[in-house]
Amino acid sequence: MLVVSEEVREAVDARRPVVALESTIIAHGLPRPRNLQVARELEDVVRREGAVPATVAVLDGRPHVGLDKDQLDRIANEDGIRKLGHRDLPLAVASGVSGATTVSATALLAAQAGVRVFATGGLGGVHREWTVTQDESADLGLLARTRITVVCAGVKSILDVPATLQRLETLGVAVAGYGTDRFPGFYLSDSGHPVEWTLRDPGQVADVMRAQDALDGPGSALIVANPVPREEQLDPALHARVLADALHACEEAGVSGQGVTPFLLDYLMRHTDGASLSANLAAVRGNVRLAARIAAAWTGA
């Protein structure tokens, strides 16, 4: 059922570096035609680092790891592309629909294809007002049982960051800052919260991955939290002000559940004149570049 592109399959079999990329940012995170331009750019970043890109999506009910040019174009431009978490995959397959994969679905399908390294922007996590709504991203539970290394810029800053970090600890998911002892905040280099472990180079990350396998413990992920460069982050004061306004607007509009994150991210983009989107893309580019270098260190390329 899982369709792995020939390029990705050959690279995995030959133990050459491969980096999984999610498709939600293409279908739902960026306006057209910029979304397709960014999708191609991110794949090019992976290739320039000597690795193979494996963008993940579901097309006509078939999960794909590795897309060709036409398939990437479909995800970017076709109307009706669903947003799929890992829980949605059986429904999407049985219904024959097409969908872009979130972090949880991408991580699951990539791991099934033998891809060990995955780059994304920011993880999902525990939402604010969790004690009232019990709203928590499915990313966390999936990463607690999937052996994959996720390079990200922390979790989305619209979330409850300390609660998310505590939840990751409870679930047994390893978290390390890359070149920092502070947990990044997606648009921000520093969320205001520390991390207990710091990794300094791709070789160190690969050593941790090997140690995970040697210890043969629970099959959980390794999160490499890579901060957006300070010169490219969203101005922290602007972020704090606009986020407070966005949370108020979200409450006033009665938005809840899966609608909260896209509402808040769209509000931030519109009310920062696109600066939040620029910081997001800077973070994603940096994560993709680092992921390719980690994949190379992991495979010995």
TrEMBL record:
BP-aspect Gene Ontology terms: nucleobase catabolic process
Cofactor(s) annotated in UniProt: Mn(2+)
Top-level lineage group: Bacteria
Catalytic site: E22 (proton donor), K156 (nucleophile)
Alphabetically ordered keywords of this record: Glycosidase, Hydrolase, Lyase, Manganese, Metal-binding
Protein residues bound to substrate: K83, V103, S137, A138, D139
Catalysed reactions, as listed in the record: D-ribose 5-phosphate + uracil = psi-UMP + H2O
Pfam families attached to this UniProt entry: Indigoidine_A
EC number(s) stated in the UniProt entry for this protein: 4.2.1.70
Cofactor info, note text: Binds 1 Mn(2+) ion per subunit.
Xref: InterPro entries: Indigdn_synthA-like, PsuG
GO CC terms in record: cytoplasm
Gene3D superfamilies: Indigoidine synthase domain
Binding site for Mn(2+): D135
GO molecular function, one term: hydrolase activity, acting on glycosyl bonds
Known partners and oligomeric status: Homotrimer.
Similarity section: Belongs to the pseudouridine-5'-phosphate glycosidase family.
Job description of the protein: Catalyzes the reversible cleavage of pseudouridine 5'-phosphate (PsiMP) to ribose 5-phosphate and uracil. Functions biologically in the cleavage direction, as part of a pseudouridine degradation pathway.
Name by which UniProt lists this protein: Pseudouridine-5'-phosphate glycosidase
Organism: Streptomyces griseoviridis
Source organism phylogeny: Bacteria, Bacillati, Actinomycetota, Actinomycetes, Kitasatosporales
